[in-house]
Design goal:
This protein is an alpha+beta fold. Helices cover about 30% and strands about 20% of the residues. The strands form 2 sheets. The chain has a 4-stranded antiparallel β-sheet. It has a two-stranded antiparallel ribbon with strand order 2-3. About 15% of the residues are buried.
């Protein structure tokens, strides 16, 4: 995460400055785009449970329901400082075992999107994966990027003289 913040976000800001710096001289009305960068980590060790009581007064420990988010206590930065904060989200449910949450860290929020809007948006994106009709563990754009990276690693072993558009796994 720190590598993304230190190097890749800095490179992104430099590119935006170069591209929009050129256009500002020609068009005084153009503005630089506002960026919201959210770092997603699906490999976390934390587990969350909820305590429920039955009609007979017995206490049970269950998995939290879909859409549960934790933004206080276990997080590094619960208050929004300079647009940065982090939270855990349980976007999916499991039928066996304990559910593993996903950790989100908002590293840049120059667009000033509210914390609640980011929480709702990331949860909604977990339902947009075309290959599954329920929520998945990470937002759909992250899953698609992971799939494309996997496909690219397979394509990297194919000689460059082969026409990739004729192969069945061409994207």
């Amino acid at each position: 995460r720190q590598h993304v913040i230190d190097f890749e976000l800095d490179q992104l800001n430099k590119i935006v400055q170069e591209e929009y710096g050129l256009y500002q001289a020609e068009d005084a009305g153009s503005k630089k785009p506002k960026i919201t960068l959210i770092i997603v980590n699906k490999r976390v060790r934390q587990r969350f449970f909820q305590q429920t009581q039955s009609n007979q007064g017995q206490t049970f420990i269950d998995n939290p329901p879909q859409g549960t988010y934790v933004d206080q206590g276990f997080v590094e930065q619960s208050e929004v400082i300079d647009g940065k904060f982090d939270f855990f989200l349980v976007p999916h449910s499991v039928t066996q075992g304990s559910v593993k949450p996903t950790h989100f860290y908002v590293a840049e929020n120059s667009s000033n999107i509210s914390k609640m809007a980011i929480l709702n948006f990331t949860y909604a994106l977990c339902y947009n994966y075309y290959n599954w009709n329920d929520a998945i563990k990470i937002p759909a754009p992250c899953m698609l990027a992971d799939k494309i990276a996997g496909f690219r690693s397979e394509v990297g072993t194919i000689p460059s003289n082969v026409d990739l558009h004729k192969l069945p796994f061409y994207l």
